[in-house]
Amino acid sequence: MNSLFKPPLTFFLPLLLLVSRAKLSPSQRLPGNNPGEHAGRHPELFYENGLLPDGREMTAYAAQGTTKKFFFTVEEDNTPVRIMVTPCSARIEWNLSMLELPEDGSGSSAADQLSEQRPRRQPTTMPGTILKSYSGYDAGKYITNTSPACTYVLEVRSVERGTTFQIYATSTPDSDHFFPELPSDPQVDVTSFNKNRVSLAWKPSPSDVVYHQPVRYCLAINTRRNYHTWCGVQSSVPGGGSNPFPSSQTRFGFDSEREMRKARKQIQDEQAVLSRSEEAPDMVIECVGSKTLHTITNLDPGTRYFFDLFAVDQVTNRSVAYLGTSIYTRAEPPDRRVIRLKDGGLRTIRGDRSSPVKQFRFPVSGKSRDQDVNITIQSCSQKLAVEIWREGVKIRDATVKSLKHFSIRNVEDELLIKVKSRRRTPTDYKIFATTNPSKYPFPQLPKDSTIRVFKNLRQCTSVTLAWLSTKEVSQYCLYMREEDPKSRSLIRQDNRCHGPKNRKKSEKVLCRSVNGAEADRDALTEVVTDLKAGTKYIFDVYVSGVGKETLAYRSKSVKTKRTCDV
To answer: Residue ranges of region Disordered (predicted)?
Structure first.
């Protein structure tokens, strides 16, 4: 049976401190007489008893709702002191209090006072003076130029969830140059931006340009909030947080070793949960070396981005935060918004001067991928420029004067259709897309959709018209009106998307259904009578199928003879 007694580190600590404080001759003096110096050379002292080394940054961990205590001893009066606490992954609260030491000559010192009782219990039983309290996400500091000989007690509590945090305590703040320095103006400036990129500029760190320290600049970009600490940025990236524990352990069975193993497991579990949750930040880190200008690209339009800059020592990873900024990227202009087309759905687009270009997306999925994609665009008045894109490559372009049909094969994902008016004046048009030919909403116009006039049959009160057939079951409606002599461009002003519903009843000549054998005729003819002599008329023919849209043949202007043949 193994009955070896494993004493805690606190058993040896009073002896260590007593030896370090023994009155020795100069030639006999130990290398250091401050408990923090021993903690610097032996990290176990920090993790077991919370003794902060002088001039060294330490990383610790506190589970949610727990409080950790740390001690920093100052040996002499009028000593400058700087204590800084930096939270990493969550908000913390901390209090700093002071335990004054007896005056010189009393035979007592900071080390004596700590060695008289177990270090974990001493601060909790002695009254102290609260010097500073802080709660938040930022790095908090306590600075004094005339500290008395005392022991500072730092109590840190994690509020939201378990988090790592960094503590830096020093009695030589003026000469340390422990962290990179900020310039006199530490603001990050936005020099330009648009819908998907932002350009930033900042002033260099004196540590870089004056002291020539190995400093690099790192930008943190996300869409949630500003981060004011470098370890906070690193903790928001999976696997990027600081390791709060020493790489080697004493294996003496100290309480701290068991706490470390437990805390490691908590950190891993919390990071795994955070990475899967919706609260996981979309953090991107870009380190740009010694540049003081940088452009971030591939951003989303109309989105708020937060930018934080850090000057980071490349050797020690110690850092200082500039004043971050945020900005909304420019939104897509209204005419660049993509309209989704439904399979078999016909859309009418109204012309708009503010949006001469419109984009349409037609997705293809499932069994539809084996079918051709049929796209039809009907211009109502003016010429349209049409482009069809597939996987970022333009595969078709054409000018649409009236009605244009496209058939696209091998569409795996989706098509992008861009439609632009050829003129500055707006025009209406219709757009249709499908993978099912039976859904086609238009009748089939012949290649030649002009209305012809038999000149030798033209009379003073009648004309004979003819037009090519669509070769399918259809209904043809013939309309006419007198041409207004004051309008020279009346035909060009007509809206080709209009049908019989947009015409006056008095303008209707007839409607004729064609089916059966008659549907196979190459051409249809009609004699229009009861006209005025010497008068110009405009004739329109509209064709519609069963349950389909109406299309118009090209208008025809005809003038009756002034005198009638005898």
So the answer is: 103-130
